[in-house]
Structures are given as structure tokens and as C-alpha cells.
UniProtKB/TrEMBL annotation:
Protein name: Tyrosine--tRNA ligase
Gene3D superfamilies, per the entry: HUPs, RNA-binding S4 domain, Tyrosyl-Transfer RNA Synthetase
Taxonomic source organism: Companilactobacillus paralimentarius DSM 13238 = JCM 10415
Ranges of residues in domain RNA-binding S4: 348-409
Compartment annotation: Cytoplasm
Lineage: Bacteria, Bacillati, Bacillota, Bacilli, Lactobacillales
């Protein structure tokens, strides 16, 4: 299957500059292509996965992906998708984020070549920039691009206005130095991508074989944007979103969305995905499609060992056998649940519930204990006079409290 046909089947193509031309080029040879990412933070989130997993699909088909980290473009701000100016980062922040993102990309995607557009942008003087590149851009054309026109009512600085020139310069530089012929980006980047095509054709001639392809904005079946949770973004950094939380995000996807997500976020074949789609109809209670999705994406991003830990935590929390977790696994499993710090001294069970903010009053705490609603480290306790010694479990660092069937609290020992 031609890679373009595969991307089309998976629903990964939004716009193409020249479908026949790109298809013919790919049939002729292995190509070099790229996608850019600005260092606006120190971790990718799952929104970055789609374009980079698209590059990975090209890599597995024998092509050569490049990732441009925007040490230059990230320092001025991309107007795409924003209703106002981005906050300006210091160069120290930019450089920190460049290093963090580069390490993250290299850990996940082993076949990508990483480059930083600061390396070829910084040496260009202002007069050279205006004479060699600014002269090739028509202001009327730039104003008509949606990324700019959408900002005209509220205003846009000259700094952000020049962003598409710098991004176009990336494409031209990669074309000249590495024979990169395709740029891949999100749907909101179409104006920037086509500006790059225009610059190359003006600088190198209309015969230059260069192409642009965008990936659609991913929406859930109900029309809402995919990738956000009540707690915010789903990060690829395990310190920001633990592998267990990451696994659970994918496992909890709706039946209406899971097949679409399997196509886009896994490398499973059409036959394998068709079987999982059938399982949703015949045995939806088993959630086989969701489990497979969670396994595939977690393993790809975090590795086999992190997947095993995430599955172990999932099984333990389902069974209630909290003591089967290690101290490290407790920290991962209950990252983000309500938590309070308590002293390391033995404490009465009622007082523990108050100190951990499980209950607001001693009367309510006693009622919960006597009604069998309280479990400490997985064990149901019904005696209000019991004393709990924090030093006896999880290396003296944590007490896991459950009230009712699902409400967890974590006492952190000082």
C-alpha cells in the first residue's frame, strides 16, 4: 500500500498541495520530509503525537524524517490558532525547552534526525533577512492567509507577522541542505506550509518538487476537541502525566471514538483494527478495543516496563489489593488524588480521616468507619478506636485511604 493510501485510510490527511505529484514522487524514491515543533513548553502532549506518528509511518515505509525544533521560531511566537499574542519567553526558557523536547523526541522516535532552526536563523542579519527573504513575500498574500487574517481585528505584532517567513525559511534551508521535499503539519498550519512552498518556488524555480500535507484536527464523536481531560493536557513526560494516568486516558475512550483512535495512534493493520471494531459490537463489556489502544500507545511512548506497571496498577486498583503495590507504584497510581501531609506518629483512625481531609467532622468519620465505608491500604476497618502507624506500610511514606467504592485519598508522611 502506498503510504498516501495508508494515511488516507487512517483519516490522517486534511489537505495536500499536490496529491498526484507527491504520490508519484514517493513511487519513484524514498523521500526526506519534516515536521516542526516550537519549544513553548518542556514536554510534548498527545496533540503532538499525530504529526510525529505520521512521520514515523513514513520512516517505517523507508523514508527519512526530520524534526525541526524551533529555537528561532519559538522565540518570537506562532500566531496560528491564537486570538492574542503569545507571551514572549526568555532565551533561557527557550533553550531549556529545546533541550527537553529534543531528548523526548529522541527517546520515542529513534529514526528521526533532529535539527534546530536557530542554527541557520541566528547568523542572518536584519538587512540580509529583508533583502534575501522579505523581498520574496507579498504582504497582500500574507494578509489573506487565515493565520493572519483571523488576527487582524484584535491586532498582530510585526514580530508574529514575520513568523511565516521564518517557518518558510526552514523549508527552504532543509530543501537546499538535505533535499527535504515534504512538510507535514497540523491543519492550522496550512498557511505557513504553503508559504514555504511559495518561497522555494521563487528562490529555486517553479520546477522544484516540494509538497505540503496537513493532518486534520482530531475531534471526538460528539464534536468536542480530543486530547484534554479535566486536569488539562495529557503530557508525554511521565512526571507530568504518569504512565498509569496515560494508560487510563486511552482505556477510558468511548466506543464511538476508539476505532478512529486505533487507526490514528497505533500501527495495527486494517485486519487487526477491523477485528477490534467487531469486538465492540459482539462483546462491548470486555473493552478489548480500548485495552488494545491503551497498551499500544503506552508501550510506544513509555516502553514495555512502564506498560506492565500501568497494567499492574490497573489490576490492583480493580481488585482493591493495595498492598500489592510498591511505594513507587503508589506514588504513580495516586498522583493527582486529594492528598494531605500528616506527621509520622501513630494516629487514631478517626483523627486520620480528619487530617487527610477525608471527612469534615469526627461524627461523619465515625459513621463512615462503622458503616464499613473506609479502607486503609486496602483493608476495611470498622473500629473507631484503632490506631494507625504510618511507618508500617509503603516505606513509611504513604497511607492510602478509600471511602466508598471509588473515592481515594492519599496521606503523605512528613
Amino acid at each position: 500500500m502506498n503510504i498516501i493510501d495508508e494515511l488516507s485510510w487512517r483519516g490522517l490527511i486534511n489537505q495536500q498541495s499536490d496529491e498526484d505529484g507527491l504520490r508519484n514522487l514517493i513511487d519513484e524514491k524514498d523521500i526526506s520530509l519534516y515536521c516542526g515543533m516550537d519549544p513553548t513548553g518542556d514536554s510534548m502532549h498527545i496533540g503532538h503525537l499525530l504529526p510525529f506518528m505520521t512521520l514515523e509511518r513514513f520512516a517505517r515505509a523507508g523514508h527519512h524524517p526530520y524534526v525541526v525544533i524551533g529555537g528561532a521560531t519559538g522565540s518570537i511566537g506562532d500566531p496560528s490558532g491564537k486570538k492574542a499574542e503569545r507571551p514572549m519567553q526568555t532565551m533561557d526558557q527557550v533553550n531549556h525547552n529545546v533541550e527537553a523536547l529534543s531528548n523526548q523526541v529522541n527517546n520515542i522516535f529513534s529514526d528521526f534526525t533532529m535539527v534546530n532552526n536557530y542554527d541557520w536563523t541566528e547568523p542572518i542579519g536584519i538587512l540580509d533577512f529583508l533583502r534575501d527573504y522579505g523581498k520574496l513575500f507579498n504582504v497582500n498574500t500574507m494578509l489573506n492567509k487565515e493565520i493572519i487574517s483571523s488576527r487582524l481585528e484584535v491586532g498582530i505584532s510585526f514580530t508574529e507577522f514575520t513568523y511565516q517567513i521564518l517557518q518558510s525559511l526552514d523549508f527552504l534551508t532543509l530543501y537546499r541542505k538535505h533535499d527535504v521535499q515534504l512538510q507535514v503539519g497540523g491543519g492550522d498550519q496550512w498557511g505557513n506550509l504553503t508559504a514555504g512552498l511559495d518561497l522555494i518556488h521563487k528562490a529555486e524555480g517553479q520546477d522544484a518538487k516540494v509538497y505540503a500535507l496537513t493532518i486534520p484536527l482530531l475531534l471526538k464523536a460528539d464534536g468536542t476537541k480530543f486530547g484534554k481531560t479535566a486536569g488539562g493536557a495529557v503530557w508525554l513526560d511521565p512526571k507530568k502525566t504518569s504512565p498509569y494516568e496515560f494508560y487510563q486516558f486511552w482505556f477510558n475512550q468511548d466506543d464511538k471514538d476508539v476505532v478512529n483512535l486505533l487507526k490514528k495512534f497505533t500501527f495495527l493493520s486494517k485486519e487487526e483494527i477491523d477485528k477490534l471494531a467487531e469486538s465492540i459490537k459482539t462483546a462491548p463489556e470486555k473493552r478489548l478495543a480500548q485495552k488494545t489502544l491503551a497498551q499500544e500507545v503506552t508501550k510506544f511512548v513509555h516502553g514495555e516496563e512502564a506498560l506492565k506497571t500501568a497494567e499492574k496498577i490497573t489490576d490492583v486498583l480493580f481488585s482493591g489489593e493495595i498492598q500489592a503495590l510498591t511505594t513507587t507504584e503508589v506514588a504513580e497510581a495516586f498522583h493527582g488524588v486529594p492528598s494531605e501531609e500528616i506527621a509520622a506518629d501513630p494516629i487514631n483512625l478517626v483523627d486520620l480521616l480528619i487530617a487527610a481531609n477525608v471527612d469534615k467532622s469526627k461524627r461523619q468519620a465515625r459513621e463512615d468507619i462503622q458503616n464499613g465505608a473506609i479502607r486503609i491500604n486496602g483493608e476495611k476497618l470498622t473500629d473507631t478506636t484503632l490506631e494507625i502507624d504510618p511507618k508500617t506500610s509503603f516505606d513509611g511514606k504513604y497511607i492510602v485511604i478509600r471511602r466508598g467504592k471509588k473515592k481515594y485519598f492519599l496521606a503523605k508522611i512528613k
